[in-house]
Amino acid sequence: MNAEKIPDIIIGRLPVYLRALQRMADNGIKTTSSQELGEHVGISAAQIRKDISQFGEFGKQGTGYSIAYLLDKLREILKVDRIWDVALIGAGDIGHALANYQGFQNRGFRIAAIFDNNKEKIGEKIGDFVVQDTDKIVETIKAANIKIAMLTVPAAAAQSVADKLVQAGVKAILNYAPISLNVPNNVKVQYIDPSTHLQRMTYYL
Amino acid sequence: MNAEKIPDIIIGRLPVYLRALQRMADNGIKTTSSQELGEHVGISAAQIRKDISQFGEFGKQGTGYSIAYLLDKLREILKVDRIWDVALIGAGDIGHALANYQGFQNRGFRIAAIFDNNKEKIGEKIGDFVVQDTDKIVETIKAANIKIAMLTVPAAAAQSVADKLVQAGVKAILNYAPISLNVPNNVKVQYIDPSTHLQRMTYYL
DNA sequence: TAGATTGTTAATCGATTAACAATC
DNA sequence: TAGATTGTTAATCGATTAACAATC
After folding, report:
1. What topology does CATH give the domain A3-77?
2. B105 touching A (Cβ < 8 Å)
3. Residues of B numbered 146-185 whose beta carbons fall under 8 angstroms of chain A's beta carbons: which are they?
4. Mind listing the pLDDT tens digit for each residue in A85-127?
5. What is the pTM of this model?
6. Considering only residues 1 to 60 of chain A, which have any Cβ-Cβ distance to chain B shorter than 8 Å?
7. Measured between alpha carbons, how far is A115 from A95 in angstroms, rounded to an integer?
8. Which CATH number fits domain A84-197: 3.40.50.880, 3.10.150.10, 3.40.50.720, 3.40.50.1240?
9. C-alpha to C-alpha distances, B83 to A177, B58, B107, nearest whole angstrom
């Protein structure tokens, strides 16, 4: 095990490996190689071996990697060998879609609270949860010790909600609002903006 | 203007600059500097100047960049100085959210067709569109000359739908299915998977 | 054993940063 | 003019790839 600082770009590839390995396991495959995994995810075999070897020696010369073992190790490294409670802020269309999304299951997450500032939505039941007033964000998130939030409010409201989340102790924000957020260094943000993603591709058309 | 190949990593930052500049323009700001823009998006001033200078000399020493002019240039570079028709495959929760999403307006995109393979959804009206059978993907997309698609079908169906999209001439796919797609080199794919994005952050918690 | 594949080193390649002349 | 900021060069830093000994 290597305790040095691992580059963020490597951390970013691990969930992709995890997802592909999970899929192989679902298909009943027991073993894979850096070569085979690389073909699935579009990354060179050398890079996959180098990435994985940052964390230990998980493979066997001649035979490759045990998928079940590598899955265990990757989940442990990424800390998704547990279930994280996630707060959802914004009960619009995207918020509803996320609240009903089945894809968090077995990936390490579950939604634990939903907030909106719209009077008509507060009290609405979505899945197992009642939509709470955004005024309650700090109080509720602190009390439940929630560390992760998904933000699906309009761009104009996103920064002020993000400030509240930081105040409540949230350390990871998945931001669907089309705006760059300003947060302290110890808070991570990931951005999901379909227009931005599409614009990354139109250049090549 | 520099005709050499521009690295993909630079192309990926341009939409972020574009979004921040658009926001400044909406707030009535006329001019900015690499320093100021950098603070907004969390990127160094030197890198912003270097990125922009790949495409021409759009700034002025002493005063910085005219926002309106830089917006024009970035839209032109990214080819979003026009409106692209986009096909949406999958009329589930995420598909509905995207169909109703207002955030494509003024960003260069509009949804032009919606498909699903569920008999109960085919014929349903979503916004201005009637959901069509996925059997019609190749025919309809070819006829309409659509080059961009968003994929919100289950993982198990994603690869076969992607194959149809490629066959129909689509060159850019925004993939919401939690699976790596196999497509020819000249087809671009961007991935949106909330679990993967969250897993990129839990490592640091 | 022979074949396959890892983990790792060194070489290469690419991206970022610092610094500053040019100039608005 | 004096101050500010660009565009660009060179230096630094970091990531990827190729190659191969080790070994299952």
Report:
1. Arc Repressor Mutant, subunit A (1.10.10)
2. no
3. 147-148, 150, 155, 171-172, 174, 178-180
4. 999 999 999 999 999 999 999 999 999 999 999 999 999 999 8
5. 0.96
6. 11-12, 14-16, 18-20, 23, 40-42
7. 10
8. 3.40.50.720
9. 21, 24, 8
